[in-house]
Write a structure and sequence with these properties.
This protein is an all-alpha fold and 163 residues long. Helices cover 77% and strands 2% of the residues. The protein has a two-stranded parallel sheet with strand order 1-2.
């Protein structure tokens, strides 16, 4: 039980750091074009921007394509990874996916309201996918740690039985 508490505390600190970094990147980072107001910009058609970035990847550059697609997925991997660690709410996959969706909706809506970036359903889809993949990664890592711990306990029990 002591391990779980320490694990949760470390996860909570890392999750907090992640959220601060997420807010910075989504609203303040000049590297991501977050300087001043951009006007109202939105996309409500699924896969429109993903398709556009793919079609014009040679013109825009592969970096722009990857930043828009993979970047949105990677940006939410930590959300899906840490949510089950820091709260019981995130222990069910559908809750983590739903929370990822809601967080993405909040960010996209704030970007629209404050005219920083644009509201894009493709970003919401990719962010939610990132949250789901983060949850899967957390489960896989948790299972690996659990197996390792069980093997160590079995080895200790075998050594005690021999001695």
């Amino acid at each position: 039980m002591k391990y779980r508490r320490t694990h949760e505390k470390i996860g909570l600190v890392l999750f907090g750091c992640y959220l601060v970094l997420l807010v910075y990147v989504m609203f303040l980072s000049e590297d991501f074009g977050r300087t001043g107001h951009t006007g109202y910009s939105y996309n409500l058609v699924f896969f429109r921007e993903i398709r556009r970035f793919y079609e014009y990847r040679k013109t825009l550059g592969m970096k722009a394509f990857l930043l828009n697609t993979a970047g949105n997925v990677v940006c939410f991997l930590p959300f899906g990874f840490f949510l089950p660690v820091v709260t019981r709410f995130g222990e069910r996959w559908y809750r983590t996916v739903f929370a990822s969706f809601l967080m993405s909706l909040l960010i996209e809506t704030l970007q629209l309201v404050f005219r920083i970036g644009s509201f894009d359903v493709d970003d919401m889809f990719l962010n939610t996918l990132g949250g789901a993949l983060g949850f899967i990664a957390a489960r896989i890592l948790g299972e690996l740690v659990h197996r390792r711990r069980r093997r160590r306990i079995r080895r200790q029990e075998n050594e005690e039985n021999k001695g």
